[in-house]
Amino acid sequence: MNITIVGTGYVGLVTGTTLAELGNTVYCVDIDSKKVDQMKLGIVPIYEPGLEEMFLRNIQAQRLFFTTNLKEALDQSEVIYLALPTPPGEDGSADLSYVLSVATQIGEMLTDYKIIVNKSTVPVGTANKVRQTIAAKTNIEFDVVSNPEFLREGFAVEDSMNPARVIVGSESEKAQEIMAKIYQPFTNTGTPIIFMDEKSSELTKYAANSFLAVKITFMNEIANYCEKVGADVDKVRLGMGSDDRIGHRFLFPGIGYGGSCFPKDVKALIRSGKQEGFDFQILEATEDVNQAQKIILVSEIENYFRGDLKGKKIALWGLAFKANTDDIREASSLDNIKLLLEKGATITAYDAIAEENVRKILGDEISYAPDMYSALQDADCLLIATEWSEFKNPNFDLMAARMKQKVIFDGRNMFALEQVENTDFRYKSIGRRTIG
Ligand code: NAD
User: Hey, what domains does the chain have and what are their CATH numbers?
Assistant: First the structure.
């Protein structure tokens, strides 16, 4: 099948490459001409494990093309996927301007039947808005389908090639048939495709992300309470997670969730609720708790230095919002950096993958180290903000030799307490006793 993907970011590029890998001819359209030029040269503009190989293979096989010209791509395709940004507007509601402006353009360009598949995360009722926007410009038949995306950054290729399920929201039989054909390689190997009405499909995505945000936040509160009463969150989570109604995943405490999805989706669902006179109390609490959790170690650092961070040199390991991605949107590292700089500290950060993106917004407000040990040179303490696996088994002797004071604030519980116990370090993590 010939398919157009509009918006070639984390979701669009991975979806486009996956659909090409499944044998389709895919035209990736992006408004960012620099990005399109890069991709035409075989350069992947984002960091995603496993993507480059698949991307290059499909370019070479002439199944994956890049353009800024929507009309050119659309004319050659039967199905148009929208993978456009839906960032939070000022009031927290999803900004639909990208999606609706492309819908207007599609309406103006249609010459024959097409299916418009929305992969962006959007509030209930958006498929209908897209339909009305296109219909205002054309009399040609078309269908709009909701097909939310569940991939995780850092595992996007794996998730896209092996989805747990495919959700298709559409009441059009014709569209359902074509969607079933696109996803046949998945259903053929047992992946369920769940057809539903478009509103339920749109809500499924928000419900899933919000539930995961609640689960993380619940565990963070349990961790904070563990510290008050002297319990160990590692033991508690193992005990809880062994119940298969709960499971072990998403029970790891830390300095809050970030990224381009959870914060914005929680906000958008709260806002959508308000528009219907409905209060999502649990989500409002989740947002507040998470915001406080992101910077919970700053007050610990401040207390340790008796309220005076002026001139303190802080080493920071990790800038990405989580491991295996270069994405820094809503990253906890940024909240910590902002606050620590305000309090007069200086920061030397290390993150091999996300540094470039942070440089774009912070420039030389902080320093950047070429490796994890260099970041520690003369540092008064180390703060860990991302769970990159290279931080898991460091050489504590080398660390101690580099640092001025042997103090670690670990926002991602990277080390087992036993690992640190035999060192000279003072070690503060989340939900566990402090060592030293
Ligand atoms: P992104 O910001 O990485 O990519 C969006 C792309 O769209 C950019 O390349 C941008 O240049 C392009 N674009 C903007 N306006 C355009 C236009 N008019 N025409 C063509 N291209 C245009 O965004 P993303 O992270 O891929 O997210 C896209 C959607 O998918 C959002 O709704 C998001 O909530 C949802 N989603 C994201 C993830 C994730 O992990 N990132 C997972 C599931 C769902």
Answer: 2-196 (3.40.50.720), 205-292 (1.10.1040.10), 295-428 (3.40.50.720)
